[in-house]
Design a protein that fits this description.
Elements lengths: L10 E4 L4 E8 H4 L10 E7 L3 E3 L5 H17 L6 H11 L7 E3 L3 E11 L2 E8 L7 E6 L7 E5 L10
Antiparallel strand pairs: 1-6, 1-9, 2-3, 4-5, 6-7, 7-8
Helix pairs in contact: 2-3
Length: about 160
Amino acid sequence: MKSTYLKVGDILFLQKGMMVGCEEVPRKVLNHFCSPFDETTTDGRFKLGFEYFSRQDVFEERIEVRTRIIEIFNELKIPLDVKILDRFLFNQIREQAATKIMLPTGRYVVTGIKNEKGVRWIYCEEMYGEPPAKIFFWQGNEFANSCELIHNDIVPERGIR
């Protein structure tokens, strides 16, 4: 298929393994060094059709809190029963449920296009998901192998759903 520029309303089939961007993704899924308690979001890059998980283990957080408490008690010359502290931390800082993200392969509709610093950004929305996955990728010389244009005569104002 010859590479052509996409337009709003084009329908694409995006295949497994295509690298795409996604906005407002939990930071803890992108970076396993982030705390499983971290609720901040950021933009991230994912491969379509692959599952991404946050870590559940809170061992590092328990050690960090434990170290700080011991330092405070030592600085103030207050006796500390470390066994009680360990039980407290075990009960207070619990393992977290994993957060999972998987952007599906399949049909997406182009909802926006932005040209910025010589790069053509394509914004898409999954056609059949509830809520639909919203992704973006850049269109350039390597685009021809990234996705297959299925249909390109939809009038965006009328919608597709």
